[in-house]
Amino acid sequence: MPEIPVGKPEAPAAVIKLVVKNLSCFYGSNRAVHDVTLGIQEHRTTALIGPSGCGKSTFLRALNRMNEVVPGARVEGEMLLDGEDILKMELTGLRRRVGMVFQKANPFPKSIFDNVAYGLRLHGGRGSQLESAVEQSLRRSALWDEVKDKLHRSAFELSGGQQQRLSIARALAISPEVLLLDEPCSALDPISTARIEELLYNLKTTCTIVIVTHNMQQAARASDYTGYFLMGKLIEFNETRMMFENPSKQETEDYITGRFG
């Protein structure tokens, strides 16, 4: 078994939250991810970069088994969450521990309050406890001050950036241990993007974050570790500063400097 790349630890007490060993992902006969081995540190932000179609979103979705809804999709290899086999976990329990936010904000056709409360109600949240949890989630997503006086208005009245933060609040409401984000800022203006990046910086004190982004400046600003994917393979993984200042692979340097991709 090859050594699992985890980047340079920031502290001796660093804990590996997610371990991926020889992971391959298939859509029918097409192999989208090739034998990826990787360790993701707890309470850190890990960015995945690379050109379109390189497998990074497929890899991300595999971490909470979103790919299973795609006909013909399958995975080979091992994924461990705190040492527990993700592929053998009960799916509802896994999704509670590993939340997902997509590229396009996807508020439900409900009120702002009911969007955030949706998952909480599924897990038995009621009454004042529910109201308190909704407020806490909106505060954690830096949205509370903007919506506290219109909680029962439609979520579709919010701006694009606010809708994305609402999607994050909905994911945070059930207190996930890991938050996966698939290009959450790709459709947002610079101001909204900055708000999301600030939010991610604050959130890593309570959960582990993995973000797919095409924006290398965002990866440099918002992550502690970065992995570079190319043609379904993990080419390099390291501390973000080291990756951008002194990449160890020529393919990584070519991509970061704009000579490729």
Your description of this structure?
The chain has 261 residues and is of the alpha/beta class. The chain contains 10 helices and 10 strands. Strands 6-7-8-3-9-10 form a 6-stranded mixed beta sheet, with helices on both faces. A 4-stranded antiparallel beta sheet has the order 2-1-4-5, with helices on one face. Strand 7, helix 7 and strand 8 form a beta-alpha-beta unit. Helix 3 packs parallel to helix 6, helix 4 packs across helix 6 and helix 6 packs parallel to helix 7.
List strands and helices in order, with pairings.
Elements: E1 16-27, E2 30-41, E3 45-49, H1 56-62, E4 73-81, E5 84-85, H2 91-97, E6 98-101, H3 112-122, H4 127-140, H5 144-147, H6 160-172, E7 178-182, H7 190-203, E8 208-212, H8 216-222, E9 225-230, E10 233-239, H9 240-245, H10 250-256
Helix pairs in contact: 3-4, 3-6, 4-6, 6-7
